[in-house]
Structure prediction request, 605 residues.
Amino acid sequence: MKKITILIAVIAGASITLGAYFLASQAGPQAASIQLNQSLTFWVDENGTGTAEWVYELPPSPLAGLMRLEIVGGTMNGVPVHGMGVENAKLKYSADVRSSYAKFGIEMENISCNITGLDEGETLKVTMNWRTPHFAYRKDNAWKILFQPIDNESYARESINATKNLQSTLSVASESSPLNYTSKESIIMPAGANIANENELLSLGIESINYGGGTTENTTTFTKQIEGRPTVVSETQALVTQQLITITEEDFLESSQFFPINYTGDSPAYGFDGSASWVATDMKFGRERDKYTVSLDGQEFNVTPYQLLYYSSKKVVNLAENSENQLLSGAQPISVLPPDNEIGNWSAVFKTLTKDNYVTTARNIRNQITSTGKAPGEINSSIGPLRPRDALFTFLRIISLHREHGELSDNIMFLPAPTDNLLNGGTEIPAKNAYFLLNTQSAITDTPQVNQIVSDIQEPSYSDKRVAEELNRWTYENITYKLVLGWFTSEEILNMGEGKCGDKVNVYLALTRTAGIPAKRVTGFIIFEQVTYPFTEIAGVTPDGRYIVGHAWTKVYVPPDGWVLADPTGNYFQTPAYENNIYSSVEETWQAVLASYETTYGELT
Prediction:
């Protein structure tokens, strides 16, 4: 894994919170480098569960000052800054890191976060601990650990854009200062394990990424023993300058090597329920596999998703009937043909299935596959048609929750697998867009005042596009622009009636998501040939000498157009005046929205 993306998630969070408004005059003329150190250790147990500790240290520097200020507040050249507070900062940093790992299909549970060094002159230190179930998984009777993005192309694009945003933040925080970054990552296997592909890992040598403009990243991988346990260690040195990077997405992916760690060890003791939990995690983050290695009645088999649909539906029925019947009816899993197509309804998203509802659905699927030998393409349920992948994801979640709590859930929220499309009135919508409807830490949906605003604007005859445009206009007209530095929720801004661009975005996201319109935050830097006060005090400079100022806007999903720009600060919809002057931008991902929800409010169940 290219670890530079994890640090960017946290640093970018600081610049976004202040709207990238860090007064350059505070930094002084010096161009001394900024140092950042990170260490990450995973301890892996015999069932593939990882226990992690992540330590992030930022010695005194203008960048440390920016991040400290967003937490505790204070003043910048006499301008008050509203700090988010330590507890909100813990949630925000936890969500940022959680989102970064979600892009690799890695879950984080039982997260704890501690922040120290909040006094000026101290080293800012963030320490995070968590548990990752199924950090290692079974494949072909062996264990495998793989840090690989679920979507390589999106990962490359987001990494490059995030690096440009980080460079822009550096230029605002401290003129000409580069960032030196060191990282050490250790993955400690269970006692008695042997690394099966050790020679392959050692042959990697130094993995290098040249971003252009002097920004580089070099990683060395080696093995060692820690407390008698085999360990793979990766050490990274990175330099981020403020010169323009030139790397393409293709070059980035070609330079990024994703090699697994394969190691020997006994089969897990968790049975089919544990296998269900692993596949549910895979599906939650959108990773699709042709086959899964699962435990059926004490034996390991490689099964297709449609075979797994049969056995998971059978397991749900067995649990409901308190049956001890084995899942296998012969020596080998049954054969299940795939459906001709998959059809599911967008209107089912986030609806509730009662226990009677989901057990009946499971029984029907089991019986249909038994009689036809083929998975259904459209599954009837009490909340509407479901795709087979969504039924599988639902059953796996039910089994996982039963494993955790010892009983079947009375109700479960329907969550779509974030792959392929759902139908909404005959129009296909990417299933992952459902997660752009969720509550987050800063954009709070379905509150009394948000519901009232949406109700006043939304008319039955209005299209989603019309509603999105009207809500954009409402936010522009009713939230007065004011350069109020600091972090605020949408509810706070609605009560204050004023705020900067990022605050208007929080309000707009709360409104559109409440209206049932998927929406995402976009943050970046806009190029200006000239700037006036107060932006003269907060502007950075591009490598070619142009001014850049941090900005936030949104994109909303409105069929049949797809994603369109909406900027409630300037009342722009679809086409902004600055369309050709965007220096860098990073779009919020559905994983980031989900991570913020689950970190702030708890797991979606």
